[in-house]
Amino acid sequence: MISDNVKKIKLELEGKETKLIAVSKTQSIDKIMEAYNEGVRDFGENRVQELEEKIKSLPNDINWHMIGHLQTNKVKDIIDKVSLIHSVDSVKLANVINTEAKKKNIVANILLEINIGNEPTKFGFKVQEINDVINSLKDMENIRIKGFMCVAPKTDNSENSRIYFEEMNTIKNKFGYDILSMGMSGDYKVAIDENSSYIRIGTGIFGPRT
Fold first, then answer.
1. Helix intervals (H) in 66-153
2. Domains plus CATH for the chain?
3. What is the pTM (predicted TM-score) of this model?
4. Adjacent-strand bridge partners of 43
5. DSSP-derived 3-state class of residue 66
């Protein structure tokens, strides 16, 4: 099943600029390896401890992405282990990432998480804050803003996500960044249409989480 799901998504991505991130949280090493053996090299994790355990057990050519809410006290544990932190949702967090990256003498690639639906239960910056946020991060030498991430409001009809993905595209172009991380199992086809750089697929690859 996993193998077939990966093949199907890869087919949908042919000729597109969009890359697949397999969301591997709670998944076993065997299941992750099934996706890996179909050529998936980008995997996303939500929890630092789980990410650390998986890194020890899986091939070292995997590009790991931190896609979940990241607590400041956990930054030091993953700063040099992930290729991209998608979920930077506060200036305080960015500051800690910068500090920890400096200690390791690296530059950390980050995305700013935008609460595009302005939902009170979700993390992320409000659209109207972005300009000020970027200005407040510009002197942090050990982080590099690569673009933006969002989770569109939950919906039964993926077309309802289009308006949010269009707005994300507008924001990305306005600020001149390269990367948009948007689109999950329920709405990734719309995200591909709207020029997402990364789609984050969990259930659509591994099936429902137990």
1. 75-78, 91-104, 130-137
2. 2-202 (3.20.20.10)
3. 0.96
4. 22, 64
5. strand
Sign of CA dihedral 54, 59, 60, 65: negative
Residue 38 has pLDDT above 80, yes or no: yes
Q: Which residues does 130 contact at the CB level (< 8 Å), separation at least 6?
A: 112, 114, 171, 175
Residue 127 to residues 62, 119, 171, 187: CA-CA distances in angstroms? Answer: 32, 12, 8, 21
What angle do the packed helices 29-36 and 2-13 form, to 10 degrees? 40
Distance CA 71, CA 74 (A): 5
Residue 80: how many CA atoms within 13 Å on its side-chain side?
9
- Name the region of 107 (left: φ>0; alpha: ψ -120 to 50; beta: rest): beta
Residue-wise pLDDT for 156-192, tens only, equals 899 999 999 999 999 999 999 999 999 999 999 999 9
In this structure, what token pair is assigned to residue 36? 């890996």
